[in-house]
Design brief:
Blueprint: H1 2-24, E1 28-34, H2 41-56, E2 61-66, H3 77-83, E3 88-92, H4 115-129, E4 137-144, E5 148-152, E6 167-169, H5 173-180, E7 184-186, H6 193-199, E8 204-208, H7 211-214, E9 223-226, E10 235-241, H8 242-246, H9 250-284, E11 288-291, H10 294-303, H11 305-316, H12 322-334
Parallel strand pairs: 1-2, 1-3, 6-7, 6-8, 9-11
Antiparallel strand pairs: 3-10, 4-10, 5-8, 5-9
Helix pairs in contact: 2-9, 4-9, 4-12
């Protein structure tokens, strides 16, 4: 009986030893770079991700969070993760156009209705096509904002002809869309848009509804056109340095993987909540909302088809399955 009791004592002793060792081990410290200001809901979610990692690992992993470009500038976030300037990073593919050609398919004006759907699409495209352009990092997860719609300062836009000659703030693919619709695309960063609308430098812009409150654009626009048939999105990435990820203990990687699944949904839901708040704020400021007729929506969709075709041709010349990716997204959005 004594031998049997000693047999049970040994593993209990070892378990206590290892548990004590973990408690006294030096915490693993990671750095996380994000371009969003700390007050933005997407930044708050990134911070809560860091907090959740610390909580679930019982303090074994501590993630130091750097919002508002305090560690790396927006355009440097991805390369900063690759080079090790930060261990993790959150930004959007659109800030480094041409670097992620296949993932750009997600941002096309394919008729997004919600941020949650756009988020699901972005992750589905990554999982299906596993683009090599992301092979130099460990992808944590992706998310995408709600439908990019048209907003104007003075002139309501009911039909495509109303856009002729109007200067619209846009960038990359949306600039091509504006041109295809008869407008004049003007490229500028978001922080400059408010004053540019105020001073008449531009007369409208394409952005998700949440911007009306988040960036207070509802102060300077009067009309929103629900051009859902050609609504675009912008895809955001959360990535980690590959070597840093590989160096984490197996149990920590499992914990973070589970957290990632939950936070993917949280980000998608937050984009939709922000859009609802943005719409309410615009209306409270006296803004008017315009819905395209079904016939007019088809007209806009036909007008921008060359933009999508141009993307497919240019990207397939690089040997990438752009056409298959676009069809995959279209089928996804139709269901």
């Amino acid at each position: 009986m004594k031998k049997l009791s000693y047999f049970w004592i040994i593993p209990v002793f070892l378990s206590a030893f290892f548990f004590t060792s973990i408690l006294h081990a030096k915490p693993i410290k990671l750095t996380y770079s994000n371009f969003f200001p700390p007050t933005h809901i997407q930044s708050k979610l990134a911070q809560s991700w860091c907090d959740e990692v610390k909580k679930r690992t019982n303090g074994a992993v501590i993630v130091e969070y750097y919002p508002a470009q305090t560690l790396t500038k927006a355009k440097q976030v991805y390369n900063g993760v690759v080079s090790g300037m930060s261990d993790l990073g959150l930004c959007l593919f659109g800030y480094t156009r041409g670097r992620f050609p296949l993932m750009e398919a997600v941002d096309l004006p394919l008729g997004y209705k919600t941020g949650m759907v756009a988020t699901i699409v972005a992750n589905a495209v990554y999982e299906k096509f596993k683009p090599k352009e992301l092979d130099d990092v460990k992808v944590m997860y992706l998310h995408a904002h709600g439908p990019g719609l048209l907003y104007t300062k003075e002139k309501p836009v009911h039909v495509m002809d109303d856009l002729k000659g109007i200067k619209i703030r846009s960038h990359c693919t949306t600039a091509k869309v504006v041109k295809a619709l008869g407008g004049i695309p003007v490229t500028m960063p978001m922080p400059e848009l408010y004053q540019s609308l105020q001073k008449g430098v531009v007369e409208g812009a394409i952005y998700p509804m949440e911007v009306n409150k988040g960036w207070r654009m509802a102060d300077v626009v009067k009309y929103g056109t629900f051009d859902y048939p050609i609504a675009n999105t912008s895809t955001f990435f959360v990535v980690m340095n590959k070597n840093k990820w590989a160096g984490l203990p197996d149990d920590v990687r499992s914990i973070i993987t589970e957290i990632n699944k939950i936070w993917t949904v949280k980000h998608g839901e937050a984009w939709d909540t922000s859009d609802a708040e943005g719409e309410e704020f615009l209306i409270s400021k006296g803004g008017k909302l315009i819905t395209l007729t079904e016939q007019e929506g088809k007209k806009w969709k036909t007008a921008i088809e060359p933009v999508i075709d141009g993307y497919i041709q240019k990207t397939e010349e690089k040997g990438l399955p752009a056409g298959a990716a676009v069809e995959f997204i279209k089928r996804f959005l139709e269901n």
